[in-house]
Amino acid sequence: MEYYSKSTSMILTVETQNEYSEAMEVIETYLAKGSSNLTEPDLAELQRLSLLVERYEEEHYPMPVEPATLPEMIRLRMFQENLKQRDTAKVLGITETRLSEVLTGKRKVNMDLAKRLHDKLHIRAEYILKTA
């Protein structure tokens, strides 16, 4: 399967170790520039490649144990992305108080927040439904 677009030399798939290594090199190049120095197209490409790499990693390097609760999964994603609670609340478009209530189990996740958790923190929809 072809994993480059001949016109743009863009990585289209990450299905082999070589494609994974190449995508990681490109990601590292973007990260070395720093987010403030990236254009909107650069940021979009970084996100696209990150998702391809994440899918490859989930298939080939699965996490040994999945967190048992949604708050634990949110905390794991915060750790993985090096996000503080304040930053996570901004990413999700909710108040810090609401996030704190979700993390402590005082508030349940509604459909809108479930969608944001899936879209912004890349938590699997099936997992959210199972643990919410």
The number of helical elements comes to 7
Largest beta sheet: strand ordering: 1-2
Low-confidence stretches: 1-8
Question: For the CA atoms, what is the radius of gyration?
Answer: 17 Å
- Our count of domains comes out at 2
Sketch the major β-sheet: 2 strands, antiparallel
Describe the 3D structure:
InterPro entries: Cro/C1-type_HTH, Lambda_DNA-bd_dom_sf. GO terms for molecular function: DNA binding. It holds the Pfam family HTH_3. This is HTH cro/C1-type domain-containing protein. It is a single chain. By secondary structure, the chain is mainly α. The protein has two domains: 57 residues, no CATH class; 62 residues, 434 Repressor (Amino-terminal Domain) (Orthogonal Bundle), CATH 1.10.260. It has a two-stranded antiparallel sheet. A hairpin with a 4-residue loop joins strand 1 and strand 2. The radius of gyration is 17 Å and the shape is globular. The relative contact order is 0.10. The N terminus is likely disordered.
